[in-house]
Design a protein that fits this description.
Strand order of the largest sheet: 3-2-1-4
Helix content: 40-55%
Number of domains: 1
Order of helices and strands: HEHEHEHHEHHHHHH
Radius of gyration: 18 Å
Structural class: alpha/beta
CATH superfamily: HUPs
Strand content: 5-15%
Number of helices: 11
Distance between the termini: 43 Å
């Protein structure tokens, strides 16, 4: 069945409205990275809750200036308030205290974990200010989630994720329907944690992941990479428990 961005957009907006009404919620806090996923999430919540109930947070940490300026483009376009909370000094202090007891992977994943802690702090802050709950929105899409391309305890956490069942191309189509600024919507995906793009780090393209999920043919080596990533990252999908007998 052909993807219908108008139908899916309206369904998602209505879902947000219904969920917030049912649970007596007020607003949302979103980490605005300057990429398409957070841009589309902020657009959806602005349409559902009103711009006055959407709080965007930029959290630079040895980051590119363009990411911050692209986040501002999204905030200006959709009209929600954008706060900047620079994590560079916190990140550097954390590393200095560890001294030699560090790994490159640990340093890379520390950034999204600090960012998620920041988002939950702002969520608690605005819940107190507004006297009603503010949730933290996730921004991961279906392709990223399937291969485990997120940080456990970092960007893998959230209270609500309205993109979790949409692939990258579907997110873009929703973004087109919502008129997300093109310079952000079509920006090359990058996590901002290394000098590589998402696809360079993964070793496969998002189209290949999407084709795999849709049971379309892809080359054998890409299929193996996707399946290995999925299986090796299953521990990220939830809390591991033992069933009682």
């Amino acid at each position: 069945m052909e993807f219908n961005p108008k139908k899916e957009t309206n369904k998602t907006i209505q879902f947000i409205k219904n969920y917030y009404k049912k649970h007596n919620l007020k607003g949302v806090v979103i980490g605005i990275s300057g990429g398409k996923d957070s841009a589309v999430v902020s657009a959806l919540f602005t349409k559902a809750l009103g711009k006055e109930n959407v709080i965007g947070i930029t959290m630079p940490c040895h980051s590119k200036q363009k990411d911050k300026s692209d986040a501002q483009i999204i905030s200006d376009y959709f009209g929600f308030e954008l706060y900047n909370f620079d994590l560079t000094n916190i990140f550097d202090t954390f590393k200095e205290n560890l001294k030699e007891n560090r790994t490159e992977n640990g340093d890379i994943n520390l950034k999204p974990r600090l960012r998620m802690a920041t988002l939950y702090y702002f969520s608690a802050l605005f819940t107190e200010i507004k006297k009603a709950p503010y949730l933290v929105a996730g921004t991961g899409n279906k392709c990223e989630i399937y291969v485990g391309y997120f940080t456990k305890g970092g960007d893998g956490m959230s209270d609500i994720n309205v993109l979790a069942n949409y692939t990258v191309s579907e997110v873009i189509k929703i973004g087109e329907y919502l008129n997300v600024p093109k310079e952000v919507l079509y920006k090359t995906p990058s996590d901002g944690l290394s000098k590589q793009t998402d696809e360079e780090k993964l070793g496969v393209t998002y189209k290949e992941i999407e084709d795999y999920l849709n049971r379309k043919p892809i080359n054998k080596s890409s299929k193996q990479i996707i399946e290995t990533l999925h299986n090796n990252n299953k521990h990220k999908q939830g809390i591991i428990t033992i069933e009682r007998q």
